[in-house]
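WP5 quarterly update. Target: Succinyl-CoA:3-ketoacid-coenzyme A transferase. Source organism: Aotus nancymaae. Length: 469 aa.
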Amino acid sequence: QADLKLLTSGDLSASALRLWMCLLLFHQYPVESVKDIADGATVLVGGFGLCGIPENLIGALLKTGVKGLTAVSNNARVDDFGLGLLLRSNQIKRMISSYVEENAEFERQYLSGELEVELTPQGTLAERIRAGGAGVPAFYTLTGYGILVQEGGSPIKHNKDGSVATASKPREVREFNGQHFILEEVITGDFALVKAWKADRAGNVIFRKSARNFNLPMWKAAETTVVEVEEIVDIGAFDPEDIHTPQIYVHRLIKGEKYEKRIERLSIRKEGDGEAKSAKPGDDIRERIIKRATLEFEDGMYANLGIGIPLLASNFISPNMTVHLQSENGVLGLGPYPRQHEADADLINAVTILPGASFFSRGHVDLTMLGAMQLSKYGDLANWMIPGKMVKGTGGAMDLLSSAKTKVVVTMEHSAKGNAHKIMEKCTLPLTGKQCVNQITTEKAMFDKCTGCDFAVSPKLMPMQQIAN
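Structure tokens (predicted):
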């Protein structure tokens, strides 16, 4: 009755009236909002990990049974949730993403030749989508120059025997102001599936915390944008300056029936202290590594933390300094791991944020901490692929390493399983970046037959420093 009253009140513009009539239909039948997505369509799907994913729209695609999709998304979530469900039902033919994440089915299908995968550096992926929405056909970027991205040959599709059936093509290179850049073509889609927090009845949309992530650039890069929200409010409930996506870009709108909102990697602080629970073998070693690496922070520094050991740094920053931690999903001002009652699914992996935090895309970082599979004596870094065996994806590392102004600190266990060398004369794995690493921190203070290249001992050698427990 309230809806009918609104429709007949004359308070809605013609465009808002059309959207609201569609909303009434789609709210009742979510499948209606995606039923015209045809086999072979290109679909942009928002979210970062499990944060900010369009759960209900993905569920609707499962019901339509559409096949042969090209899915453009930062990653494919996990095996049994998010896009992982569409992979498991064999509805996706090609993924364009930056990271495989914890999705074993994604990796299996890719390595077995069932799935085409175009792995793209995270910042490049975001810009390819943003520029596509702006009508720009291509752009030049530093990211990826001198490695497999520029040279070509990265596997897109494997044969069943593991050999490469289709590989990426070399990128065009141009020099600007003494630096080399590679040409990247933009991405557009037939449909964008976007998850937001709230919408008003006119179709204006706002996001919550870091759940805006890849959702934000996608609404402009598709022919048809379908948005699902948790709540729909009256027109005028939002201040105009608070609206993130205006109604002109929203073609269809649904209110999600229910949300599971899983948290992908939840680490909880113990009550009464600042450290995360340690339950995995090797946690003591990792803690020792990161406590030493944390001494590289300086007061007022802006720093980015990679996944794994580097992310532990947020728990060991000296209380006598301020370090602004930035996350690749668009958070500036990360705090320590949350306590149980602080966990928030709209913050990637339920991290906490400090007073003064903000949500935006990354940039202007003084220091970045990353993990590594291999390092060379020249400072080359490899951390995204073991050809034919394991694929993590490029993530945001290539973008971070492309800035000469950013100090790069690698934190890792000194040797791989079986005591295989990780610090080598020359990397044998595909590189993430060339001559980009400034410092390596491992658990060892003395190397003895566990480093695959010559090294010099500093005359200022001293016992390993670390902050007090």
